[in-house]
């Protein structure tokens, strides 16, 4: 079977790995327009649920991801004019470039051909394949070529955001809010490597216009943000890697397959960064697609059935997360309405921005702000992290981590 993945992001590379693991005789090619090691964005966050899945599907790459991941152990909320508060929880983060390096290396080890600097410009020029996976991201050219068939739609978020990196290492996942003369502006930041943190800045369009951020070039814009967030960055610089300010684009598609072409990851659906799950969902798409075509397909009807099964399984799984992402991004669009709440109530509102928490979460939040209960909560959650890690297939852990 010949499979071509257009796009060497997390979805494309991970699907290539899984499809090759299922059947090593498959000829699998990944086309990626960027050079190896070059990518947009900074670190991404994820949680135990993704790690559990990764260890189940390919313990070798999972162990490398686990070993490389930065482990943080609570959320910190720093809002101007309020004392610092904390939210219970732990998670992981990893540089996007590191994740792609691990997946690219694993794919090549298994015999996948990864062709970097190979941009698909004319989809009709693709070499023949039994399955073409369109995993070319939110702006998918393959999807847009048949936009009507796929029923693709793009909804643009109201707030402005910019995805920055900084050498300042935040202690843990941090939300920071500053009040300016033009309104509130905030960031979502987390360390993802020694010497590097992701720093996503967001504000309403009114604040963005009022601060003149649209009129500033990259260097002046970064300098302006550094000044606004000087109390948070310890004097360290910000880098926008040339991407500039954006509005989040929520992509949906009514159908995910067209003949032997199937959408996967951001090409099929995007999920607002406020719940930090787009990479997870893209990789879980790859797992579901690999399962759906595991036994191969005798003809086009069998392929259509397999792709239908994949799409259905993923749409069912995505629905609650899409709702959560929508509620979460809407909270940030209304953020100024919450700004006058006292510190603990403000951070609780931030944590329950999906509006789903039972009452005991409020009581737990209020009672764990002091040093002793907070430390106990962190220890308890940390024990849970390591307990869960120990249940995963540990025999692969040391063997799989490349040395040097
Ligand atoms: C600000 C921000 C923060 C985020 N933070 C998180 C987070 O913390 N956690 C998380 O899980 N997710 C996060 N995400 C979402 C995550 O980045 C995406 O959901 C994820 O990268 C989707 O993976 P993908 O493989 O589907 O697409 P992509 O990662 O976009 O990969 C697509 C690949 O296709 C290539 N490509 C495109 N067109 C062509 C072409 N014509 N020919 C060849 N190659 C092509 C691109 O170069 C790219 O490498 C965030 C997103 C944003 C915007």
TrEMBL record:
Coiled coil: none annotated. It comes from the Bacteria. GO terms for molecular function: FAD binding; oxidoreductase activity. It holds the Pfam family FAD_binding_3. Keywords: NAD, Oxidoreductase. Residues 111-316 form the FAD-binding domain. This is 2-polyprenyl-6-methoxyphenol hydroxylase. It comes from Actinoplanes regularis.
């Amino acid at each position: 079977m010949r499979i071509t993945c257009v796009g060497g992001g997390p979805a494309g590379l991970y699907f290539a790995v899984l499809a090759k693991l299922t059947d090593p005789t498959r000829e699998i090619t990944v086309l990626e327009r960027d050079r190896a090691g070059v990518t947009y964005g900074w670190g991404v966050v994820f949680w135990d649920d993704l790690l559990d899945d990764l260890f189940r599907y390919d313990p070798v790459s999972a162990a490398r991801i686990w070993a490389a991941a930065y482990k943080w152990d609570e959320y910190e909320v720093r809002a101007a004019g309020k004392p610092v508060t904390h939210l219970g929880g732990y998670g992981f983060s990893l540089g996007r470039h590191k994740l792609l390096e691990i997946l690219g290396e694993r794919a090549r080890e298994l015999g996948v051909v990864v062709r970097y600097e190979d941009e698909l410009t004319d989809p009709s020029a693709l070499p023949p394949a039994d399955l073409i996976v369109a995993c070319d991201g939110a702006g998918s050219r393959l999807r847009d070529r048949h936009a009507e068939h796929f029923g693709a739609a793009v909804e643009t978020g109201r707030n402005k955001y910019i995805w920055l990196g900084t050498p300042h290492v935040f202690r843990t996942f941090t939300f920071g809010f500053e009040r300016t003369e033009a309104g509130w502006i905030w960031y979502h930041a987390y360390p993802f490597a020694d010497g590097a943190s992701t720093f996503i800045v967001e504000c309403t369009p009114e604040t963005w216009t009022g601060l003149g951020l649209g009129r500033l070039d990259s260097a002046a814009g970064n300098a302006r943000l550094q000044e606004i967030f000087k109390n948070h960055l310890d004097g360290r610089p910000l880098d926008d890697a040339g991407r500039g300010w954006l509005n989040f684009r929520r992509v949906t598609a009514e159908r995910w397959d067209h003949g032997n072409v199937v959408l996967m990851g951001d090409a099929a659906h995007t999920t607002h960064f406020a719940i930090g799950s787009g990479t997870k969902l893209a990789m879980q798409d790859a797992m579901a697609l690999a399962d759906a075509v595991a036994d191969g397909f005798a003809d086009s009807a069998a392929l259509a059935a397999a792709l239908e099964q994949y799409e259905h399984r993923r749409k069912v799984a995505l629905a609650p997360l899409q709702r959560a992402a929508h509620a979460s991004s809407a909270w940030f669009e209304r953020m100024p309405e919450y700004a006058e709440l006292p510190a603990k109530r403000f951070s609780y509102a931030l944590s329950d921005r999906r509006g789903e928490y039972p009452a005991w979460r409020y009581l737990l939040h209020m009672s764990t702000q002091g040093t002793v209960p907070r430390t106990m909560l962190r220890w308890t959650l940390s024990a849970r992290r390591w307990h869960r890690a120990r249940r995963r297939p540990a025999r692969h852990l040391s063997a799989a981590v490349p040395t040097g």
